[in-house]
Amino acid sequence: MKLTIVEDYQWLSVVGAQMVAEQVRRQPGSVLGLATGGTPVGMYAELVRMYKEQGLDFSQVITFNLDEYVGLASSDPASYNWYMWHHLFSHINIPLENVHLPNGIAVPVQDECRCYEQAITRAGGIDLQVLGIGSNGHIGFNEPGTPFESETQVICLTEETRRANARYFPDGNVPTHAISMGIKSILKAKRILLLAGGPDKAAAIEQALEGPVTVELPASVLQLHPDVTVVVDTAAAAGLTKAGSEKPTHQAAG
Ligand code: PGA
Question: Which of 12, 34, 36, 39 to mutate to test the pocket of ligand 1 (most atoms within 8 A of CB)?
């Protein structure tokens, strides 16, 4: 694993965006695996800036998002589909047909899971997968205990995850289930970029990077992948005993 510790959220966003941009410039038809949540919002804003000011070209890029809530239509402002259009897709030149998210209202949902996994394979697999991490160590919505062999499936969300995401549901109706790429789906990506910021992520980052590889801490499985870059701010890096003494860098190359 390559670890980059940056000073703050702004640098986390810039360094993350630089890695995505480098992938897209090198391979214009890249298949990107994308994440939602609070963490990548700044990275998406930086990618939009690069598109507008530097002409970063997304016209051949294909995207697959990690997950979507079961029961939410793409028109629902709390859906991840809506999130992606709001933060990224509406502001760049990616063709509509190149964008993929699980359909949260598909029936039967198991068919949707199978088709989603097949669509990723048909696209040639993911070249660069962006990940956040839950404070319980989940990646995508793969909660503790999810088998490493899992592919796209329906996940029953833990109370901790539902509490963490309650801020996006002012009416209090936080969904109980989500469709998520599985651990195996994620590990099939050629490269992985894990982003984490803030003190709430420090324990999960420490266990993911320095603890045992266990299904109880899903992100620990990333230790088994040959090409993972972890970008964390100093707060999220605070628990790292092996690398915790490193000085934060501002630059990706640092
Ligand atoms: P966050 O979520 O970016 O909103 O902290 C990350 C996650 O739960 O995977």
Answer: 39
Pocket around ligand 1 at a 6 A CB cut-off? 37-39, 132-134, 138
Average pLDDT over residues 214-237: 98
Q: pTM higher than 0.85, yes or no?
A: yes
Q: How confident is the model at residue 253 (pLDDT cuts 50, 70, 90)?
A: very low
Instruction: Determine contact, residues 179/119, Cβ cutoff 8 Å.
Output: no
Kindly report the protein residue whose alpha carbon is nearest to atom 2 of ligand 1: 37
Cis peptide before 175 (omega within 30 of 0): no
Angle at 65 between CA 60 and CA 68, to 5 degrees: 145
pLDDT tens-digit map of 177-186: 999 999 999 9
Q: CA 136, 139, 145: angle at the middle one, nearest 5? A: 60
Neighbouring-strand partners of residue 99: 63
Looking at the chain, the number of H-run helices and the number of E-run strands are: 7, 10
Give the amino acid at 36.
T
Single-letter residue type at 43: M
Asked if the model's pLDDT at residue 254 lies above 50, the reply is no
List helix spans (H) across the chain: 9-26, 41-54, 80-87, 109-122, 159-164, 183-187, 202-210
pLDDT in the model for residue 241:
87
Cα gap 6→236, rounded to integer Å: 10
Return the active site residues: 67, 136, 138, 143
β-strand pairing of 177-180 with 191-196: unpaired
Rounded distance from Cα 95 to ligand 1 centre (Å): 26
